[in-house]
Design goal:
heterodimer; A: elongated; B: 248 residues; alpha+beta; four-stranded antiparallel beta sheet; 8 helices; globular
Chain lengths: 95, 248
């Protein structure tokens, strides 16, 4: 991809929760970037922010960012998996 | 609705009138200070880091910011200057700038030299009082941004910033029917809030779907300000708009 030529990319988000099921949000607006490395960086940077803001109450959750071109093709994806487990029996500290 | 002309003239007088009881002479003086303006394109440094500061800048129209560049090339924006905002009445005391001030859009600015500041100090105590008030409000705003950026979720962080900008634009008469004009790009929002572009983009779409915020180019609409303020935990005390001195 040439630098300087800006193209619009759409960042769709999938959240998969082992108990709650899947949620998807579709990006209707998109963001312009001029290189594929910027697109990759932007997708990956968003993941920890998603996890931080939507702190799961459950113990298994997968956050995925999928990058779409204006003609609807997915060209990149990145996922972050959150796994939380009690090591010695469930819920030792009760609320 | 086209609202390009919705910023009234003399936004600096509207703003400073919250900081002190300005007389007709004070207002005439402030009008004469703003008589000589400079048009500056967007993306231009008004003063750059390491430069020796000399003039106080006043933004009459457009949007400017204070920023620093990080060692890895990213930009951090620590303040926005909207119409009516001054920067640093006593900036000439400093030996060199520790940050830069740049226009984000086409701006109309006024440069006030040290001689004029000295003249104001000698002859216009209420203007000076109001400028001190503005400096204190700038510091309070910076404190609020630190709290906002370090402790709020992205969603509340964005909502809080828009509540602040709405309130600031309202004080200079720049809000009509919940709508104001500020050409804030998502890249600028990301650099203010310390968030990724993708997350900013996503949160703005989410707020729009919920009917809390609509951003269309430079036109920003907050249909239900109390609802957005409540969601964000916005309390305007830090903008010090009470005019407490007017009530004894």
């Amino acid at each position: 991809m040439e630098r300087g030529f800006r193209m619009r990319y759409f960042f769709d988000i999938d959240k998969f929760d082992i108990d709650d099921g899947s949620f998807s949000t579709r990006d209707d607006e998109g963001i312009e970037f001029s290189s594929s490395s910027q697109v990759r960086e932007a997708a990956i940077q968003a993941l920890p922010e998603l996890v931080r803001d939507e702190w799961p109450s459950r113990d298994r959750r997968v956050f995925t960012v999928k990058v779409r071109t204006p003609d609807g093709r997915y060209i990149f994806h990145a996922s972050l998996t959150l796994v939380a487990d009690w090591l010695d029996g469930p819920g030792r500290i009760q609320p | 609705m086209e609202i390009r002309q919705m910023i009234p003239s003399d936004p600096h007088i509207s703003k400073l009138s919250y900081g002190a009881a300005l007389s007709a002479e004070d207002c005439a003086e402030l009008r004469s200070i703003a008589a000589v303006t400079r048009a500056v394109d967007g993306g231009i440094d008004l003063i750059s880091v390491t430069e020796k500061p000399r003039n106080v800048h006043l933004v009459l129209d457009g949007l400017a910011c204070r920023y620093k560049m990080l060692e890895d090339g990213r930009r951090s924006i620590m303040a926005l200057l909207v119409p009516g905002d001054f920067c640093d009445m006593h900036v000439a005391i400093l030996g060199s700038m520790d940050h830069s001030i740049a226009t984000l859009t086409h701006c109309t600015v006024v440069e006030i030299g040290p001689d004029k500041i000295h003249d104001l100090i000698r002859n216009f105590p209420d203007i000076i009082r109001a400028m001190w008030w503005a400096t204190l409000v700038d510091e309070a705003t910076l404190r609020e941004w630190i709290v906002n950026n370090s402790h709020r979720s992205a969603r509340k962080r964005i909502a809080h910033l828009f509540c602040e900008l709405y309130t600031r634009m309202k004080t200079v008469g720049g809000v009509i029917d919940g709508t104001f004009r500020l050409a804030l790009t998502q890249a600028v929002l990301a650099d203010i809030l310390g968030l990724s572009l993708v997350h900013v983009n996503r949160m703005i779409q989410q707020l729009r779907h919920e009917g809390l915020l609509a951003v269309q180019g430079a036109q920003i609409t907050i249909p239900d300000f109390p609802a957005l303020g409540e969601m964000a935990g916005f309390d305007s005390t830090y903008l010090h708009l009470s005019r407490h001195w007017a009530h004894g």
